[in-house]
Amino acid sequence: MGTPNKHSIVEAGQKIYARRQNELEAQSRGQFAAIDVASQQIFVAPTADEALRAGHASGAGPFYLVRIGFRAAYRMRRGLHGTDARIAR
User: Fold this and answer.
1) What digits encode the pLDDT tens for the residues 73-87?
2) How far apart are CA 67 and CA 30, in angstroms?
3) What is the four-CA torsion angle of 75, 56, 43, 61, rounded to 10 degrees?
4) Which residue, of 7, 49, 70, 79, is most buried by count of CB atoms within 10 Å of its CB?
5) What is the DSSP-derived secondary structure letter of residue 7?
6) pLDDT, tens digit, for every residue of 52-74?
7) Up-side HSE of residue 59: CA atoms within 13 Å toward CB?
């Protein structure tokens, strides 16, 4: 894979997820998957922190994080006047 950059990590992670999407969504929809783009291992857990911790414990990385069955792991919301951004689940 060479020296990973954010674009290559995203591209590789999306390809790995696409290959296993049906299986992951049938078994773990709504959970988080930390995908090690180098080894193609997938660590699934109820929270993003737990998925990433499991991946790091294995000595793996870099990771692509996705919420299974959703377009993104998180989405941002802004207040009425465009201030006070916060993460929404």
Assistant:
1) 766 666 666 555 555
2) 6
3) 80
4) 70
5) H
6) 999 999 887 899 999 999 876 76
7) 0
As given in the structure block, the two tokens for residue 1 are: 């894979």
The answer to whether residues 69 and 29 touch, using CB atoms and an 8 Å cutoff, is yes
DSSP 37-51: TTT--EEEESSHHHH
Q: What is the predicted pLDDT for the residue at 34?
A: 95
Please, which pLDDT band fits residue 5 given cuts at 50, 70 and 90? confident
Q: Are 51 and 73 in contact (CB under 8 A)?
A: no
Considering only residues 9 and 81, tell me which one the structure prediction assigns the higher pLDDT.
9
How many residues are present in the chain?
A: 89
The span from the CA of 87 to the CA of 3, in Å, is 30
Token pair in block for residue 39: 């080894």
